[in-house]
């Protein structure tokens, strides 16, 4: 692994950057008390309608917004730095210990947060073929931050890292080994920072050591994934070579028969790119009913919309399959936990996903399930054999914590 950096003992702040293809999300945190000093989003980079929204969290100030074309990620990060400086939180502050970057794909090499060097960047670039939508943007964010603060440690925290503990029999696809190895084809998993954070927080909620707890984590956002976590180590996860495999998502199909792609090419005359676009952008909930917002889908269900009802039922059916499968993988389950936008906010999804699983020791208390809260909480009855919980995720805090621990090692 790359050698670590140490920083001035006064430095307690970490800037977290999540660079997408046309956006940059950022948060500045003070790791002395894990508080947020500022958050922001730059979106539609490269368009005339670019927009930056910056919120100074420390003093509860109102969000500030600027619009107008932001040409590239360098301009986006510079604009974010200007907003931070206006709050007295500039990137030139001696209190800034490091910049932590979300990197989607780390392959097998990166199983922990890593200080970025030229060699590390080269390896992230080599992984672009298996993460063409994500790694290039992550690299751009890193290089831009390096140019702004070349003296500061830049730390990559990988979505795939938490899942590198999967046993080989869970990570392998049953295809020719030489072909798979030559092209890095295996199951990597994603949303790892969320699964790591939530599984650890679930153990805290239960008042038990992480090493003693087996958890099924359901990260349900527009992208969705499940994981089976045994004693703090991932042993199975639903996403695979790419974030397409697994659960039904907002616009992604999740699991399909691989021969569907051959059929579409041979019978429908679709190109590889068209099939890729179909499965990633025009499938899932939006493909089934035209909406990928669970709130809108539930409204339509309540009005008797049959397509929305079918989409909801397909979504829930896939969740039940994974809960059952991961119960078998773990052998003993202490908690099933819901997180991310849908998981944290949709009581109907949680209720439907657990309904009928009493044989697994699972049940939901309707009153507890109906409560809306930003705090971790149990929604199962007191006498349930397996806890059901809602634990809000905090990927930025997880990235900041891993980054700070590394540079202060």
Describe this structure in words.
This protein has 409 residues and is α/β, with parallel strands linked by helices. It contains 15 helices and 14 strands. The strands form 2 sheets. Strands 5-4-3-2-1-6-8-7 form an 8-stranded mixed beta sheet, sandwiched between helices. The protein is globular and about 55 Å long. Residues 1-6 have low confidence and may be disordered.
Please tag this protein with its features:
alpha/beta, 8-stranded mixed beta sheet, 409 residues, 6-stranded mixed beta sheet
Task: Give a short overview.
The protein is built from 15 helices and 14 strands.
Q: Which helices and strands occur, and which strands form pairs?
A:
Elements lengths: L12 E7 L4 E7 L4 E9 L7 E5 L8 E4 L5 H14 L9 E8 L10 E2 L2 H9 L8 H14 L5 E5 L9 H4 L5 H6 L9 H15 L7 E7 L3 E7 L2 E5 L21 H9 L4 H10 L2 H6 L4 H9 L3 H25 L4 E5 H6 L1 H8 L11 H5 L6 E2 L8 E4 L4 H13 L2
Parallel strand pairs: 1-6, 6-8, 9-12, 12-14
Antiparallel strand pairs: 1-2, 2-3, 3-4, 4-5, 7-8, 9-10, 10-11, 13-14
Helix pairs in contact: 1-3, 10-11, 11-13
């Amino acid at each position: 692994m790359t050698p670590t950096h140490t920083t001035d003992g006064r430095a307690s702040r970490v800037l977290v950057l999540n660079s997408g293809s046309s956006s940059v999300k950022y948060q500045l945190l003070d790791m002395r008390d894990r508080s947020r000093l500022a958050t922001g989003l730059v979106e539609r980079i490269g368009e005339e309608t670019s927009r930056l929204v910056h919120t100074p969290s420390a003093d509860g100030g109102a969000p500030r917004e600027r619009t107008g074309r932001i040409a590239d990620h360098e301009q986006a990060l510079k604009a974010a730095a200007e907003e931070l400086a206006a709050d007295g939180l500039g990137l030139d502050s001696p209190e800034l210990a490091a910049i932590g970057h979300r990197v989607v794909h780390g392959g097998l090499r990166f199983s922990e947060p890593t200080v970025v060097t030229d060699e590390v960047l080269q390896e992230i670039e080599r992984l672009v073929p298996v993460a063409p939508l994500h790694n290039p943007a992550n690299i751009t964010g890193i290089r831009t931050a390096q140019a702004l603060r070349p003296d500061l440690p830049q730390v990559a925290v990988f979505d795939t890292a938490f899942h590198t503990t999967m046993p080989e029999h869970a990570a392998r696809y049953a295809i020719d080994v030489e072909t798979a190895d030559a092209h890095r084809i295996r199951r990597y998993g994603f949303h790892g920072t969320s699964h790591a954070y939530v599984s650890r927080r679930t153990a805290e909620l239960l008042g038990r050591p992480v090493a003693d707890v087996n958890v099924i984590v359901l990260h349900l956002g527009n992208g969705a994934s499940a994981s089976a976590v045994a004693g703090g180590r991932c042993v199975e996860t639903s996403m695979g070579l790419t974030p397409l495999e697994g659960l039904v998502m907002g616009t992604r199909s999740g699991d399909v028969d691989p021969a569907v792609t051959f059929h579409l090419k041979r019978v429908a005359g679709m190109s590889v790119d068209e099939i890729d676009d179909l499965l990633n952008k025009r499938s899932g909930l939006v493909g089934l009913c035209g909406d990928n917002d669970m709130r809108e889908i539930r409204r339509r269900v309540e009005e008797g919309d049959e397509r929305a009802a079918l989409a909801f039922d397909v979504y829930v059916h896939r969740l039940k399959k994974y809960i059952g499968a991961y119960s078998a993988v773990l052998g003993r389950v202490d908690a099933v936990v819901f997180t991310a936008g849908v998981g944290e906010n949709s009581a109907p999804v949680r209720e439907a996903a657990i309904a009928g699983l009493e044989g697994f020791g699972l049940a939901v208390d309707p009153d507890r399930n109906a409560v809306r809260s930003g705090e971790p909480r149990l929604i199962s009855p007191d006498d349930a054999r397996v806890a059901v919980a809602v634990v809000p995720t905090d990927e930025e805090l997880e990235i900041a914590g891993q980054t700070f621990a590394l540079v202060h090692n």
